[in-house]
Design goal:
The strands form three sheets. Strands 6, 7, 8, 9, 10, 11, 12, 13 and 14 form a nine-stranded mixed sheet that branches. The chain has a three-stranded antiparallel sheet with strand order 3-2-5. By secondary structure, the chain is α+β, with helices and mostly antiparallel strands. The protein has five helices and 14 strands. The chain starts with 18 loop residues before the first strand and ends in a 7-residue tail after the last strand. The mean pLDDT is 88. The protein folds into three domains: 19-74, RNA-binding S4 domain (Structural Genomics Hypothetical 15.5 Kd Protein In mrcA-pckA Intergenic Region, Chain A, Roll), CATH 3.10.290.10; 79-162 and 247-258, Alpha-Beta Plaits, CATH 3.30.70.580; 165-243, Alpha-L RNA-binding motif (Alpha-Beta Plaits, 2-Layer Sandwich), CATH 3.30.70.
Length: 265
């Protein structure tokens, strides 16, 4: 006896009500759909009194208002400066996050925006997309890292990478003898390979720790650790204070701020 097969019930596609916010704004502003999307992504559009930054949101009879000061000229690409904590990977993407990988990128959240940021930029969701990490930093180090949407900043940090000076402060155990400091500055070669010139000075000494200031051109991850290990120095902490002419300053660890218009690498 042949058993009859039951036919699966037909699932009707969900009917979407209303129209896309971008279409509504385009009609209201008498502009193109792309320009309407830019107004929305720029944070200029509110629905029932709440700013909405997603053009695909559907509206029916809600009150849609466009800020009278709305301008597409304000939609510039941004550069974000972060004080990376130790243990996070600068160049890893959010998609690489796992038990062994902690991308610094995942700290770029609205809640981690430095409250004292003086740049005066309205924080938008679009500021967190298409960001590129520009300058490598050791996972075990903390300090200044850069993420940008701006192709000009990316090109500057890429093309001038070899001549851009980096400044780090490194805490090592104990005091540093004068001859050790001299060897750190000597630029000795490693395995017949020339090391980049390094300027090292004592920043301060306290509590059985010495703070050394390292300055050299180019990122060179692992260089400081190699030089200290060669001299038998035990590194307690490492922090990058400056990339080119842009400094970490008072930015707290784990927080980020916008690159100001007058700042240049």
């Amino acid at each position: 006896m042949i058993k009859s097969q039951k036919t699966a019930p037909t699932v009707k596609p969900k009917v979407q009500t209303g129209e896309r916010l971008s279409k509504h704004v385009a009609f209201q502003m008498r502009c193109s759909r792309r320009e309407a999307e830019q107004y929305i992504e720029g944070g200029w559009v509110s629905v029932n009194g709440r700013v909405v930054e997603e053009p695909m949101v559907r509206v029916t009879d809600q009150a849609v208002l466009i800020d009278p000061h709305a301008s597409l000229m304000a939609l510039t690409d941004v550069t974000l400066l972060m004080h990376k904590p130790s243990g996070f990977e600068t160049m890893a993407t959010p998609g690489e996050a796992g038990k062994r990988v902690k991308p610094a990128h995942q700290l770029l959240l609205a809640d981690n925006h430095w409250p004292q940021d003086a740049v005066g930029v309205r924080l938008l969701k679009r500021h967190f997309i298409k960001l590129t990490a520009c300058v490598a930093l050791e996972n075990g180090a903390s300090g200044l890292v850069v993420f940008t949407q701006d192709w000009r900043v990316l090109r500057k940090l890429t093309e001038d990478a070899a001549i851009m000076e980096h400044e780090l402060v490194v805490e090592v155990a104990g005091e540093i003898a004068p001859d050790t400091l001299q060897r750190l500055n000597a630029g000795l070669s490693s395995d017949c390979q020339g090391l980049p010139p390094v300027k090292v000075s004592v920043n301060s000494t306290a509590d059985r720790l010495t703070r050394l200031r390292f300055a050299f051109k180019g990122a060179h991850p692992g260089l400081v650790a190699f030089l200290c290990e060669r001299e038998g120095l035990q590194i307690k902490s490492m922090k990058r204070l400056r990339v080119g002419r842009v400094a970490l300053s008072n930015l707290p660890e784990g927080q980020w701020r916008y690159l100001q218009a007058q700042e240049r690498f």
